[in-house]
Amino acid sequence: MEEIAVTFKCVLFDLDNTLLQKKPTIVEKVFEFAHQYYPKLCVETIEKAYAASELWQGQQLKKENETGQRMNDEEYFRNVLSVYLSFLPANLPTELDNSEMITILSRNYGGSYTLIPNAIAVLEYLKRKDLILGIVSNNHTKIRQPLIDFRIDRYFDCIVLSEEVNLYKPDPKIMELACKKLKVPCKNSIYIGDHPFDVLCAHSANMSVAWFPPNRFFTVPKYIDVPEYTIHALTDLIGIL
Q: Cα–chain-centroid distance for residue 49?
């Protein structure tokens, strides 16, 4: 998309796959588990399944926002599992359709968070530019602890988490709430996120987007406008902001 002349005063970040990454990743955990039953399985297949499952989740959250009805967790993650299984051979071992896979897909498998490469350097750069920084994430309160542990919470003037405000992307109200707290117009803000529906959410709030896809199989559906920017590393923001 052709760049639009906008004076950005505020930068809002997603968390997972944008500033933080859980290790091992879901792709790594699913591959490790499924490879036991499919020795010829390649990581690329799981990367494709991950991209497809994230798209399903975005569509589901959009539907839930519109209807006001939340799917229960068990049904939700069974649906996510079915997306993954659709990328695997038809003769499925029963072990794949069990609680261990659900645990992996719901991200309840332990592990620890790491910072996305160059996160602190980029945050320092943005602060030197006198930009207001915030976080908007479909996440739980516990995610605040890694921010404290890595000492990056100090960079942000506002942290809006879906669990705490009962708003979920792609509902633009969660973006609007953050901008209201920061006293910055949405039109002068840019969102950095990894999900195709982050693009939809930001655009619905009259906000620009720098899309940061987790792997090459993520695409923005045709019914969502093209993001203003696509980045492949946080340091790409230095050329934009």
A: 16
* Residue with tokens 């923001």, as numbered in its chain: 237
Q: Copy the structure tokens of residue 188.
A: 């002068």
pLDDT digits (tens, 9 = 90+) for 31-49: 998 888 888 999 999 999 9
Contact 49, 61 (CB under 8 A): no
71-125 per-position pLDDT tens digit: 999 899 999 999 998 998 766 565 555 678 888 998 888 889 999 999 999 999 9
Cα-based distances in Å from 188 to 5, 52, 91, 96? 10, 32, 52, 47
Whole-structure pTM value: 0.93
Given a cut of 90, is residue 55 above it in pLDDT?
yes
Q: Which residues contact 164 (CB under 8 A, 6 or more apart)?
A: 141
Encode pLDDT of 149-187 as tens digits.
Answer: 999 999 999 999 999 999 999 999 999 999 999 999 999
Q: How far apart are CA 10 and CA 19, in angstroms?
A: 16
- Name the residue type at position 54: E
- Give the phi and the psi of residue 157 in degrees, each rounded to 5: -85, -15
Q: Cα dist. 231→55, 61, 134, 186, 217 in Å?
A: 19, 24, 19, 21, 14
Contact between 160 and 174 under an 8 Å Cβ cutoff? The reply is: yes
Task: Give me the amino acid identity at 143.
Answer: I
Structure tokens at 182: 């920061």
The answer to whether 207 touches 190, Cβ cutoff 8 Å, is: yes
Distances (CA, A) of 101 to 56, 63, 95, 154: 17, 25, 9, 36
